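If you are new to this repository, start here. Below is one unmodified record pulled from the training split, so you can see the exact layout before writing a loader.
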Amino acid sequence: MRYEQRAYARVKFLELMAELYENEFEDFFHRLMCLRYPDFLDVRTAGSLGDMSADGLTLHSRKLYACYAPQTVKPSKIREKFDGDLAGALTKRDGQFDTFVFVHNDRRGVHPEVTAMLSEAAVSSPALRFEQMGSRRLWHECMQLDQVAAEDVLRCEIPIKQMTFGIGMDDLEPLLKQLQEIRTPSDPLMDLPDVRIEKLDFNRLEGEAREDLLRGMRQAHLVEAFYAGNMRELEHDEVARGFRVYYEQVRKKWNDPEDVLWQLQMYVLGNAQPRPKVLRAALVVLAHFFGRCDIFEAPPTGWQPGIGITA
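And here is the target side for that same chain:
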């Protein structure tokens, strides 16, 4: 899909997330996962057996999924659901999974109660891995579908005509706003952070694209500060995963590194012409994820310019 189509799909996805609860959310989850993973089993209820404490299973990655999508979120109910699903899975699905995934429809992110429960469960059941899957993770899965599959999941046609969007990833709006407010001009003599500068050479980033990233690197610590703290670490990882997924898709269609950077810029800002300080903030964000190696390729150990290996 083109950027405009993906942006349109994002709008429709968010509309769905605002409307889907309980069984309807579970149906959406099943449609999405069946299209994404051939080994996904969309478990249905069967009489007195119920669903044996699993809303879905993957055979190869051995993950068990438990969905929770109420219209009204109450911390006590979240814990009751989580504990009940985990205890039931351990009893009824013993030996069938290695990872327990708590799937929810909270658009705002991960509820603090969920983070606490995941941490506690990891301690009490050390043989298992625990994950959560909210709107960001679900969107990352949608992003990897082709247009026909995405239309099936979203239950709408994705138009071909070009459109203009003023924001790319709405999850990044608070970060961009803060960067615009606290960002100060970069000191050109300031030491760069601990980033392998040869990564710029390896990915053939030259000219203005290179200068944009170098300027952004001098402010990238502001992004790290924004995501600092236990409550934001999970969000940071999810945003990083989204960048990586989108970068890998862009690389398949664009060979010129400057074009790849331009596509990633639209991922952050949309395809409308941004104000200069908004663009500068976006470049700081891209420089941060460039430094983390979530976007573009890290050179092999010992690589030096001119030895004939490129990204």
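Two things worth knowing about this chain: The radius of gyration is 21 Å. Residues 3-154 form a domain with the Rossmann fold fold (CATH 3.40.50).
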